[in-house]
Amino acid sequence: MKLSIKTDYACRAIAWMAQHYDEDQTVHVQALAAAQGIPENYLVQILTVLRSAGFVKSKRGKDGGYCLTRPPGKICFGDVVRAVQGHVLDIPSLGDPNCPEGMKEVWRKIKHSAEQIADSVTFEDLVSASEQGGGMFYI
Amino acid sequence: MKLSIKTDYACRAIAWMAQHYDEDQTVHVQALAAAQGIPENYLVQILTVLRSAGFVKSKRGKDGGYCLTRPPGKICFGDVVRAVQGHVLDIPSLGDPNCPEGMKEVWRKIKHSAEQIADSVTFEDLVSASEQGGGMFYI
DNA sequence: ACGAATCTTTAGTAAATCACTCAGGATGGT
DNA sequence: ACCATCCTGAGTGATTTACTAAAGATTCGT
After folding, report:
1. Residue B122: which of B17, B5, B15 has the closest Cα?
2. Do A19 and A52 form a contact (C-beta atoms < 8 A)?
């Protein structure tokens, strides 16, 4: 079970826009790509996904760019991850009748726990964590 | 983040051998494959991994087969998953200096939680759960 | 209206991974 | 010797990943 870099990029993109949310400016793809170390052409595709999922809106033309559609406190990790890769954790055998019920319960428990953590952290939490420069969980 | 069917097969194989552990018999690949709905030739490869990881031992020749090297209570989910796929959750961006620290902490927390659950369940737990025919967690 | 800067969309692609399949060899009991 | 079983390594079609590229649409300043 491996986190795809695409999902990570998506979260980084949202995180960056969350940090610049109060300035009420659009962010250029190029700037975002450079700031987060993401290949520009790849980021474009990711932003398209994030736009159709409703997290960001875009403006074309000169002085165009991207910005969040709602405050960072209203977007959680889980939402973004699900928009990019469907599930936080995808456990195909949960739908397999050959898989013993006891095992399914273990997978389900792991899946549920991952989802709960991802859903409990918003991008506002990330912004405040980075402003304090310190841990947001193990204070 | 998707669970590979290979890992699932590996756990099913161990689970099946755990259920037949007290009989102190070897299990044939063919029987195991049929019982758990796993392609036989694929299962062979998985058992090889499990053997070199020390979970099972094999016997060749007529009346050969596989059995666990230790009681099911001494083998946990996490062990088997790590033997097959390296990590319970693999988060490559934890090693990426471009990934913001706050995000790493979220991934780390999810990873840690998944590992802890996987490490807290043994295959003996699975056997007793299936004997009772009921839930092992949400009693 | 023009041109530059930006986003939009679609297509392509090399590499890796997944989930097998197969063939031939080694081993051990009878 | 024979046969049932495990052992090993090679091969493979399909899918996914992580990009790259190119041609088009939109907006703004002038």
Report:
1. B15
2. no
Q: How many alpha carbons fall within 13 Å on the CB side of residue A8?
A: 28
> Does any CB of chain B come closer than 8 Å to the CB of residue A126?
yes
Both tokens assigned to A105: 């319960």
Q: Which domains does chain B have, with CATH numbers?
A: 5-131 (1.10.10.10)
A109, B137 in Cβ contact below 8 A? yes
**Residue scoring higher pLDDT (A130 or B104):** B104
Cβ B83 vs Cβ B55: under 8 Å = yes
* β-strand partners of A56: A68
Maximum CA pair distance of chain B? 58
Distance of CA A108 to the CA centre of its chain: 22
Q: How far apart are CA A111 and CA A88, in angstroms?
A: 8
What's the gap in Å between the CA of B131 and the closest CA on chain A?
A: 10
Supply A29's token pair.
Answer: 């793809």
List residue ranges whose Cβ is under 7 angstroms from nucleic strand D.
A 4-6, 39, 41-42, 44-45, 59-64, 85; B 2, 26-30, 41, 44-45, 47-48, 51, 58-66
Minimal C-alpha gap between A88 and chain B (Å): 7
DSSP-derived letter for residue A103 is: H
Say whether B106 and A36 touch across the interface (CB within 8 A). Answer: no
**pLDDT classification of B59: cutoffs 50, 70, 90:** very high
Helix axes A123-132, A5-19, angle to 10 degrees: 70
| Contact of A47 with A87, CB cutoff 8 Å | no
Which pLDDT score, from 0 to 100, does residue A24 have? Answer: 72
A and B: number of Cβ contacts within 8 A: 136
